[in-house]
Amino acid sequence: MKTLHPPFFREVQDSRRVLIAGMGGGFDVFCGLPLYFALRAEGKQVFLANYSFTSLAFHLPKALAPAVVEVTPDSSVSPGDYFPEYWLSRWLATQGEPSTVYAFRKVGVQPLKTAYEALVRHLNIDTILLVDGGTDSLMRGDEVDLGTPHEDATSLVAVNELRGPKTLLACLGFGIDRFHGICHANYLEATADLARSGAYLGAFSLTPDMPPVQKYRDACEAVFQMMPRYTSIVNSSIVGAIDGHYGDHHATSRTHGSELWLNPLMALYWTYRLPAVAARLQYYRPMLDTITLSDVGLVIERHREEVTIRPRVAIPV
Known about the structure:
Elements: H1 7-11, E1 17-22, H2 33-41, E2 45-51, H3 56-59, E3 62-65, E4 68-71, H4 84-94, E5 101-104, H5 109-123, E6 127-133, H6 149-160, E7 166-172, H7 184-196, E8 200-205, H8 211-226, H9 233-242, E9 268-273, H10 274-280, H11 284-287, H12 293-306
Parallel strand pairs: 1-2, 1-6, 2-5, 6-7
Antiparallel strand pairs: 3-4, 4-5, 7-9, 8-9
Helix pairs in contact: 2-8, 4-8, 5-6, 6-10, 6-12
């Protein structure tokens, strides 16, 4: 049945040293853990990184470049601190896994590109897989709502500007961005557009019986206990969807008072060739000169003022 495998698996078949990087900050790197464990089981060298929301200067970890640092179980952190990369590193060490997680500072495209270049050289990376917890990374700029585009767009542009590694994108958590106003008809339209250009690499489900999925759940549950005030809404919803919960199911008190829509599509990885996704970004060129995340915000704001915003469309099913 290998002929029915999504093209994504052919894309990574010859990869040997893979960097899986959360592109949108927070717990996005956790959304790459099923792929991390699956690729490692195939004998590949796989490394983890994340665009970080943590004040890395405060924790003073070892820096490879001004905008990227190594986070290890020995990093200086107070109990319960918001530092997903550190707590993931601690959990990996308990599993006998390589425990370094690389964290990117909250910066614009130019310093982030330099950081990725340093990390690619340091680890001799041949493939970069950006992972989005949610689906707003495919918004091109004129949709009714962009979700939380700043970090996603910065990561997308910075990685697309690299020369050398193969670059891919995976989204996990269809429906989660309803919380941020995303029109999912726009996401399906973008995927259809990328399918026409040959850049859509297929979708595949995560199910509870898969060992990499079980390790992903274990990692989430362990880190949520280490950071009890900051349980990830995205990952707790994805784990709930994998386990078969549907509709307005709340796995964390952080979502009480809001209406959720857990559904089986949340447990799907949707995969793409990254350059084609980047080519759709309408404000790509002005992003190239950004230094800070504030610069990125100004680029997006100006673009939204200049384009005609498309109306919200209901999915007709």
